[in-house]
Amino acid sequence: SAVISQKPSRDICQRGTSLTIQCQVDSQVTMMFWYRQQPGQSLTLIATANQGSEATYESGFVIDKFPISRPNLTFSTLTVSNMSPEDSSIYLCSAPLTNTGELFFGEGSRLTVL
Amino acid sequence: GENVEQHPSTLSVQEGDSAVIKCTYSDSASNYFPWYKQELGKRPQLIIDIRSNVGEKKDQRIAVTLNKTAKHFSLHITETQPEDSAVYFCAASKWYSSASKIIFGSGTRLSIRP
Description:
The structure holds 2 protein chains of 2 kinds. Chain A is mainly beta.
């Protein structure tokens, strides 16, 4: 079955720095989605990454804070910029790998900002 | 945009009893309603989904019902087992449209008492 892999799986970062999370899908997908899951909370959609166009951000998320790249149909990156402790969270990439609508998730990247 | 509300936030049932989780959605154009299960430290995984052209779907001990008029849908788990303990998320989407993002509910932490 198709796989979505993310790295890093976890990191501890200093306030004010930036971190880029990579997401690799082993099949070509039109859309990739980036979610944030704060401890004990739900999955909040950050943005939709479409190949060949700018990412579409949800309310409360801006490109300067969460720049996204989508250079091809199997890869995307999410950067968390100028991090603060409030950015400590799990970041998950996801994609529909079939035409049924099912969303598959990467294993997540757990960021802790000190 | 779409808003999905889910309740209860926590649910404890005796092993062997049934569990019911309820969700409402706001966008009448939504047509795809998946349910995801997330075990501790793991990625969310689809357990069942339903589309707007059917009112009920069943898969072994799990069933989902949809009331389009009232804009609510429910997950039913019968004969609960310890391995059913997890966080469950409902979600809604306008699948196969240009806005095919999936919005999640707040989650229900289900505990099965032995």
